[in-house]
Every structure is written in C-alpha cells, then in structure tokens.
C-alpha cells in the first residue's frame, strides 16, 4: 500500500513537472526574436583622462570623459555578450549609488541589466571581448560557461607567462582560460552562420583586438568598433593612444574597417563615445 502511494505521488510529481517545465523554461530564457536584436548596457563612465595620452589638446575634444558600455546581441539561434564593463558587479551597491574605482564610476550591475531582459550569464551562448584592457573585462569570469570567441594573438597575450600590459588585470578574466573556446586567426567569423553577426579582426590596439558587424532588419548595418577609436575626433587622423600595442597595425586596421563601412553603409559605433552613447536606446530598449 505504501509503495502504491509512493508510486502515485511520484507520478503526480512527474506529471506536474512535465506540465510546468515549458512555463519554467520560458521564465528563465526569453522567447527567441524573429530577427537580431541589439541591447546597449550602461557600465559607467571614465573621468579625469589626460587628452595628451591620445595626442589631443583638451580644447580639441568635445569632452575628455568616456563612457563604458557593453552589448547583448540576441539572435534567433542564440546570444552573444560583447564586453563586460570596468567595475565588477560584486563591487557595486545594490541601491544603485555610484561606486568609483580609480577613474571609473558606475551605478548599474551588468547582471541586473541582463536579468531585466530575462537572462543570466549562465545562459549566454557566446562571449567575446573587443580586447582585454581593464575597462572591458570586469565581469568576464561570469561568462566562462559560454563559448569564448577570441583571436589567437589576444589569447596568447592574455595568458603570457610574463603577464599582460599595465592596463590589464588577469584575475578578472582568468576563468576564460578553461572555457570552451573558438580560436580566430584574423578571418571573419560568422557567429550564427547567416551573415547577421560577424566578428572581424582589427589588430593593433591590442595584439588581437576585434570588432563586430551586425546586420539589423530595421536599423540597418552597425559596426561595434571597440577601441578602434576612442573619440570621434580621432577619425580621419593618424592619432593613436600612447599605449597602443602596434600603431602601424592599428592604422592598417582602421583603413580596412573604414573601407568596409563605406562598402556596407554601416554605422560605426565608437564604444567610448559619450555623446553618441547618450543618444542611444538603453536596455531594456533595443535595436532590431
């Protein structure tokens, strides 16, 4: 008799699970969109920069301040997280009050912005960094369960025995070392296989700096340029930061990307451009 009760209870629990499973899944993973969406996340600002680092005088720039942002790209077949901010979520305050570390100030955690869309780092399909400087990698370890898309020269520099450049912090991305990884060697990489999300090499700022091209159904093509440039005023000049890994390589990458933009008609979004960022829709709003 006890066995029958146990069996009946177990069957009821199983039936309940089968009935609720689709609902529970829909609560943790949003329904895939019909076409690619781009979400823009606010990861704070950088203040107090010396424009001489970028070979400018203060009066030559609209502002020396920079924004820190990251992006979630949602495709019908999966998701791609691009960059992760400058201040780790663990160091930010739950009430949203500002936190400052060195020249970086932020108020919103990356996880809270993802959660507002129904995502967690654990259910992001692909993860990529434009490059491994400290203002892009703060929460990289949270995405170690995603497939990491990285250029071979960048990965080599990130885990070189002698460590990285002064503006890198290996501890914040160390978990990526054991991630499932897709190694790129300068070739275009079509992430979802339909030409709507394509990673392109743009070496120079770092050994394996990369950008991503998006083909959006309504907005049109966009190229997220990482740190190919830092200020709008850099475009159409040969000025590069004093901390550039390879200046000549950067200038060659800029020329190649500008030619690609001319060919495709894509908008070029400079990731640190504060004025442009202020005009953009922020998550949970999106571009499609």
What do these coordinates show?
Helix content is 22%, strand content 23%. The protein is of the alpha/beta class. It has 5 helices and 13 strands. It has a single domain, classed as 4-Layer Sandwich (Metallo-beta-lactamase, Chain A). The strands form 2 sheets. The protein has an 8-stranded mixed β-sheet. The chain has a 5-stranded mixed β-sheet with strand order 9-10-11-12-13, with helices on one face.
Extract low-pLDDT stretches: 16-27
CATH topology: Metallo-beta-lactamase, Chain A
CATH superfamily: Ribonuclease Z/Hydroxyacylglutathione hydrolase-like
Strand order of the largest sheet: 4-5-1-2-3-6-7-8
> What about the largest sheet?
8 strands, mixed
- Terminus-to-terminus distance: 59 Å
Core attributes:
288 residues, 5-stranded mixed β-sheet, alpha/beta, Metallo-beta-lactamase, Chain A, 5 helices, 8-stranded mixed β-sheet
In brief, what are we looking at here?
With 288 residues, the protein is of the alpha/beta class.
Topology:
Blueprint: H1 2-28, E1 37-46, E2 66-75, E3 78-82, E4 99-101, E5 104-106, H2 110-115, E6 126-128, E7 147-151, H3 152-158, E8 181-184, E9 189-190, E10 197-201, E11 210-216, E12 220-224, H4 247-264, E13 267-269, H5 274-279
Parallel strand pairs: 3-6, 6-7, 7-8, 12-13
Antiparallel strand pairs: 1-2, 1-5, 2-3, 4-5, 9-10, 10-11, 11-12
